[in-house]
Amino acid sequence: MIVVMKTGATEAQVVAVQKHVRELGFKDHRIHGEERNVVAVLGHVYPELVDELGVLDGVDTVVRISKPFKLASREVNPYDTVVKVGPLAIGNGTVIIMGGPCSVDSEENVMETARAVKAAGGHILRGGAFKPRSSPYAFRGHGEKGLHILAAARAETGLPIITEVMDARDVELVAGLADILQIGARNMQNFSLLDEVGRAGKPVMLKRGLSATIEEWLLAAEYILSHGNRDVILCERGIRTYETATRFTFDVNAIPLVKRLSHLPVIGDPSHATGKWYLVEPVGLAALAAGADGLQIEVHPNPDHALSDGAQSLTPANFAKLVQKARVLGAAMGRPVAPPIAELEAESRPARARKAS
Ligand code: PEP
Ligand code: MN
To answer: Are residues 59 and 106 in the same domain?
Structure first.
């Protein structure tokens, strides 16, 4: 249920509504709109509550929410969520591009990839230090050492880093080093992990589960949001279908549908969806055309020697070509690729500091 305040309702009136909601035993969640404030009421609401809350000072209307997910829905929050990561804004109508290896291997390779991602105009460095692998005998990542390699690449290039956290016990460690926590497809419904990242105080990118419906995906996002973490990014990475010619099937429908149902930014991952490097560019561009707020792309300086997912990894040269095409497409659609990170950094510095530098 949401309580929509009147335009011009006072701060005291909004606070009084929130207090009343809590006194009735519900959780409250405030949304600061451009024109008016909204208070979401979370819990087992009952029909009479519409009238009980409707008579409070400053209240305009009380509306029951039809969707099972609340905080993730546009019904509760009609305004696009913009997730800030350093000078970057994800979901603000520009396109941002993440690139990097599937797994963090050597410091040398990660550095080379980070420099290439930056030179191509990419915005965020990705790389897995904790790797979810189907077989326990496959390379499962360098763990904490891998996080330090990513942090060193960030220190040199200025690119923020995104990396997967697989276990609730590692959230503190990963959140201490990463700029965005990634929840992998296989952990989309690991509810204790979702609870933990909801409390971590860092943006979270939630990948869609291999066989998850859109409703299950948004309910998983709801877990994170319900802890007060509003910086949630969704990522469509392909789903299981009967088709085996590609690794998964990229669900392009999901992008505009989720953007309609939810205010959260959506990223497309054509690398895991296709499993083949030569399908990554066309499917990535399709994701952008469908309205994605950005892409996550696997890049490796020597894909044949990558420790995981080499077959779907782009070379730096092919990554640069993809970014270039994304620029043309973004400009044509009025959703330009965001400027390079160094430019955004310079713009966000106060004028005085800019003059001095
Ligand atoms: C990844 O991004 O490294 C990854 C393992 O992806 P997913 O969870 O989508 O399979
Ligand atoms: Mn991978």
So the answer is: no
